[in-house]
Amino acid sequence: MSEVPPAPPVLFQAACPECRARFELSAGAILLAIGASRKTTFYSFTCPECETAVRKPAGERIVELLTGGGVRTLRLHSTV
Q1: How far from 25 is each of 6, 58, 62, 76, CA to CA, in Å?
Q2: What pLDDT is stored for residue 1 in this prediction?
Q3: How many other CB atoms are found less than 10 A from the CB of residue 60?
């Protein structure tokens, strides 16, 4: 039997709303937070160009893509 080569790392296309740079980020550079509603579900990263902390909303499709690509996920719990 031959060994299966490791899968190449997943890269995600992203853009910075501050400096407008476009770049690729590895799964380890992104954090996904899943809350109780659309307003509290987002992903965040630091722009590699201008070092701005970026936070963007994450709909169902984005959540699916990020979790499937190995992005760290934080589940936010309601205190109600």
Answers
A1: 19, 16, 14, 23
A2: 60
A3: 9
Residue owning tokens 């499709």 = 61
Distance CA(48)–CA(23), nearest Å, equals 8
pLDDT value at position 6? 76
* Side chain identity at residue 67, one-letter code: T
Write the pLDDT tens digit of every residue in 37-73. Answer: 888 999 999 999 999 999 999 999 999 999 999 999 9
Q: Which amino acid is at 41?
A: T
Q: Which residue has the tokens 């970026």?
A: 54
- Please, which residues have CB within 8 angstroms of residue 12's CB and are 6 or more apart in sequence? 24, 25, 26, 27, 30, 65, 66, 69, 71
